[in-house]
Amino acid sequence: MSKSSALSTHVLDTARGRPAAGVAVELWRMEPAPALVTRATTNADGRTDAPLLDAASFQPGRYELRFAVGAYFGEGFLDQVVLNVGLRAGEGHYHVPLLCSPWSYSTYRGS
């Protein structure tokens, strides 16, 4: 049995040890040509209020998550963190956390 697919994210400020509230996030579908899917801003828990893609609007393909971390930190090395991901149907929930500071970031596929 395949699982419904969806996409969510959250942002953690590793420099301050807390969720990153107020980070602008954009989701772009890259195929067949780049197109903005949605914009959101992280809440006090560092999460968007709704999934970036819910099961009803999910389409498999290549996507970019764009995080405006430079505006959040106000200084530092990073400006925009761009994560290019491939999403497949039937793979269940995709959760993509971003752990960041003004100088570095890491990510993984969460649950």
TrEMBL record:
<feature type="domain" description="Transthyretin/hydroxyisourate hydrolase">
    <location>
        <begin position="7"/>
        <end position="110"/>
    </location>
</feature>
<dbReference type="InterPro" id="IPR014306">
    <property type="entry name" value="Hydroxyisourate_hydrolase"/>
</dbReference>
<comment type="subunit">
    <text>Homotetramer.</text>
</comment>
<dbReference type="GO" id="GO:0033971">
    <property type="term" value="F:hydroxyisourate hydrolase activity"/>
</dbReference>
<dbReference type="InterPro" id="IPR023416">
    <property type="entry name" value="Transthyretin/HIU_hydrolase_d"/>
</dbReference>
<comment type="function">
    <text>Catalyzes the hydrolysis of 5-hydroxyisourate (HIU) to 2-oxo-4-hydroxy-4-carboxy-5-ureidoimidazoline (OHCU).</text>
</comment>
<dbReference type="Pfam" id="PF00576">
    <property type="entry name" value="Transthyretin"/>
</dbReference>
<dbReference type="InterPro" id="IPR023418">
    <property type="entry name" value="Thyroxine_BS"/>
</dbReference>
<protein>
    <recommendedName>
        <fullName>5-hydroxyisourate hydrolase</fullName>
        <ecNumber>3.5.2.17</ecNumber>
    </recommendedName>
</protein>
<keyword id="KW-0378">Hydrolase</keyword>
<dbReference type="InterPro" id="IPR036817">
    <property type="entry name" value="Transthyretin/HIU_hydrolase_sf"/>
</dbReference>
<keyword id="KW-0659">Purine metabolism</keyword>
<comment type="similarity">
    <text>Belongs to the transthyretin family. 5-hydroxyisourate hydrolase subfamily.</text>
</comment>
